[in-house]
## 1
Amino acid sequence: MSFFTSLSGLKAAQTDLNVISNNVANTNSTGFKKSRAQFGDLFAASPTQTTKTVAGQGVRLSGITQQFTQGTLQATDKTLDLAIAGDGFFAVRGQPPRQDLSFTRNGAFSVNSAREVTDTIGSKVQLLPVDASGVATSTSVADMFDFILPDEDPGDPGSLLTNISINGEGVVAATFSNGNQINLGAVAMASFSAIEGLRPIGDAHWQATGDSGPAQVNQAANGPLGQVRSGTLELANVDITEELVSLIAAQRNFQANAQAIETANTLSQTVINLQV
């Protein structure tokens, strides 16, 4: 029995090492959120047994949960580099034909050849319609639209785009060579009832699940969404010192379980030799 108990401990320590190693590997990944392995003990006894004489049977993995704490904000010189000072997510939509809706904290956005503002995996940033004052006129997912930079002023085709600005509420304002300024929309932000239920899909992107609940969309500075910081990126929320300490502890745990297996093997071999 001690073999299997220690074996479960070895598997648990290996999982812990894998999780910590992934955190360390993504220290420089923009918008990355660290994970933590959670474990529970295994115990079994029949109704007629007294539990005072039954030992535990090892450990099991309860789950690997992501820690959505705020990462450090780093200033850049690019207007389309966006960070969130709060708990919200940017809503982005994949390219055709699937056009899957996903959510990210990685605001390293750029402009493609079609003048669409996209993220690092090519998904298109979503905007909400706003009025002249910059207040969202709809918070429905169905009313979101792609963030596309105009070439010229819609009311004066001869006036070219000269500047883009994004304020703390996520309102995107375009300025043209004739001096006109129009609001293109507000960056669509999402929050969830149970953030730990989000399904990670890689590249600091997540999808909504039944556990997380549907996305609640609004513009920035509403509820827990937080504010948008233009010219800023959010770094990974990994504390390298803390991870290295955890790595040492997981390594010691692995070694201790390996030693327990070796001890059990020595005892078994001794018993076999005595019988011979």
## 2
Amino acid sequence: MANTADAIIDRRRLRRKLTFWRVLALLVVAIALIGLYGFLAGSDRLSGKTTAHIAKIRIEGTIYENDELIKRLTDAADSAAVKGVILSVDSPGGTTAGGEAIYEAVRKIAAKKPVVAQVGTLAASAGYMIASGSDHIVARQSSIVGSIGVLFQYPDISELLTKIGVKVETIKSSPLKAEPNFFNPASDEAKAMIHRMIMDSYEWFVALVQERRNFTREQTLALADGSVFTGRQALANKLIDELGGEDKSIAWLKTKGVDEKLPVIEWKPAQKTPFGSLLSQSALKMLAEYLGIPQESAGLLRDLTGDRIFLDGLVSVWHVDGKPVGAQ
């Protein structure tokens, strides 16, 4: 009996050791696969980025200070393999500072090689600001272009607080500190301060369009009232240079000495590893659980916390969700 018991104990110990090494081996393989996935996803050699080509970079959705996008633009400017750049713009705009940062990155490309903006559905506000950084703008006949201007928005929930019996007390160093705020109607002085700030950025935006489109100030101001235009109207108003799609963009690059037979390779954002994606999904589920809502709502949280919900500071945007009024 003693020998039988010892044998059973030995087998259990052996089984535990085998389980440990199997788990360890699986972890090693998983880490190796993740590393290989990241290498393949980011490999310039496999994507063809080391051979001569035309780089296509998409600028889509709400504009903000996107370090990853700016790095892609900078890398394209510095790459000897990139002979020309097509910016595929489809954006309602976003933060004015974000548009400025990306615009400056586009101008750095233009200092080294030809760059053309190809407008999809929409290039409005900061989206148009970025497109104007290129040396040639192509848009569809039905594209929406323009909305040159700046705005500042803030909620006033003071009446709601009054109805539910909440009063917010504030002690501050001066009347305009932290103004305007959510909890009290803005004073005339606060509104005047914000208006001065808006007009200063508006003047900068107007001057930018005036320079890039070779307008007089009067021509620019006539178009910079917040109006949007179809591609056909934008061409008539000289906000764009040509109607068409990617073929027109390539044809223009040819006039700048870029071989039209070169392949067009899209420079995509760096892909996240599956491991990182799983972590982000787990984090969203944990947040949903903490808020006391079903875990199935994690997808809704992801949508609500996307880059479209709240834009801080001055914004240059036309319909934040990118859909014209009445669109489904």
## 3
Amino acid sequence: MGAHCCNHDSSPPPDDKYRRILWIALIVNALMFVVEIVFGIASNSVSLLADSIDFLGDAANYGISLWVLALSVQIRAKASLVKAGFMATFGIGILIHAVWNLITGVLPDAQTMSLIGLLALAANVGVAVLLYAYRNGDSNMRSVWLCSRNDALGNVAVIIAAIGVFGTGTAWPDLIVAVIMASLALTAAWQVTKQARQELHHV
């Protein structure tokens, strides 16, 4: 058992390049959180607000990832469980927000949604490209990659929702996208939790 623990725990730590990429991702996500929370409120868009909360959660996730980089696989796996909890909470929160907007009948501003959605897409694609080479690492690396991938997909969905809101004159496209984004977050949380538990089991 000691040898097995040693072998599992002796995987090479992420390099300095990965650390720099995480810092870039953290800064980009923190800035985009501020941008999207402001314009999400201004445009009454639940999908933009969902994306802003997602950016905040990702900034926190990148910060946690930076903290645990040099630590053991066991600690990194436990950190991944925390991050999975963030993703699951985000998903549930967005579902609740979508229901609230449905009840109140708020109509979002399609033009603001599309412009901010494009900006967010550019930011997330840039981060995802930087992280692509590390997508098959441990659960901690995988959770970072999944967050970035889901963010880019979510941005595309926001842009599609903006077109739908403009074309139909209703909030339904915005609400549908919010539900899709919540589903992505919950699915990613499950995947990361499953891998992290497997890593804890083998330590």
